[in-house]
Amino acid sequence: MTTSIQKVNVSDITSQTQVKQDNIQLKNKSILPDEQIYTIRMGTELFKLTGSSFNSDAPNYFTEYFQKNENKFDLFLDRNAVSFRRIVKHLQGYYLDIVDEDEYSMLLADSIFYSFNKLTTDIKESPYYYANVGGKSFKFLKKLFRRDGDSNNYFQVFSNTINSEIEYRFVNNKLSVVPISSNFISRSPEYFQMLLDLLSGATLTLSPDLRETLIKECKYYRFQNLEQRLIKVNLSINPFSDICEIKLQLNDISSKGLTSPIEKQLYSNLNNNCMTNKTVCKTSSTNDNDCGPATDSSNNSSDNETTTNANSNNSDPTEPQRKKRRVGEHKRPWDMVRYKRPFIDDNSAELVFQLNANENTVIFNKYNKIIHIDITGDTLRTFDRTFNAFLSRQGINLNSYRRKFAANKDGKERDHLVLPACISISDLQVNGVQCRNICQLISDSKFNDIVFDASEKEKKKYSPGLKLHLLNSLWKLGVKDGQLMLIAIKMDSFSGIKEFNKLTEFI
């Protein structure tokens, strides 16, 4: 006798079991007779639906009502007929395409009121956001914000808020509570459309002003990834240090992106040329065509430092101290602060930041032979907001470099941030002329300003010196051993009132 063995597919058994369970659940949901017609009156409008339609999203308000009142087949409700007409399509198995933010709010409210749980879930999990920006309705995909930094945005927060608020009012029968209005945003619809285009992958030609405006719009909507991609930056490899550098405006730096070179163990050999903020000028240059530090002197500023400070014992402890170099002693260079754009960059680069016009002055103190950069106004506040917390983690108190004084002896006192500066490797332009020997400029009797003496913190005094008012400048920030140094990369400056007036344009 031959016994046949039938192969049984386990997946088939599982699927059959699932079908049976689904049929049982469907039977339990079919609490109204499928063929029975029920009449629903909303205001002056009449709707006729079968029990099958109501059972498609059961249990709900209607199934419970007609189950309790078996002999009744009609019902009057003082609700919105337009909204219910849309819900009927859902009950009949059609896809519910929500048009705008008002319809979204009404459908969500009524789906909760009628206890259509499936519809409520579908609305909450809609693939779209709905908003009215400046009087124009927008419907846009949530997946536009899939990038890290864009997802937790204004619309996600508002959507979660309004969903919770509507659910609270109807579940807890708090209809007297004034509801949150539909998602109206008093912003420019044209700019918002540009942001959506950029998020969709479009390439737009942006003027500097338009770029700045769109960055502000990104900040408002919390599109943090797009904001970083809109910021104008320059990434390049420095051929002398073989280190990647990132260049951007000071006000575009996010404090979250600052990283310490000490933590990353990355150093730049170029810093050997900027060990101190002391000048090395000894005698006037004999070259009448030059105006800035001689190349040989600047390239060896740390090694040629021989000038002593008569007031060294009373000098400000926040100033980098000069020490005589011992034979064979190796000085550790400044550690350059690095930067990584949040949500964009995987690796950090050496930071080069740009300071703009009218609020920054390079001060040369002829008496103490020291150099500082004096930062005031909005630039001071931006610098403090950007670097204060980061420098504090490096053991540097930025407030110790704050001073309150008048730029001129008879002027009005205001806040200043006076930081040690090194210009040895800087490309310098003064009054429209390339400057190759700063020593001659400092010793020139025509440039004899009275400058604030930052060598002593507790005293307000002025010394003979030179001021270079910066139009634009590029800087690196060096830190080590609880001290800091601003290292100039490029400076465009002017030195007096006539040069300032020369730059003034007619209206």
UniProtKB/TrEMBL annotation:
Residues 285-331 are annotated as: Disordered. InterPro entries: SKP1/BTB/POZ_sf. This is BTB domain-containing protein. Residues 295-316 have a biased composition (Low complexity). The lineage of its organism: Eukaryota, Fungi, Dikarya, Ascomycota, Saccharomycotina.
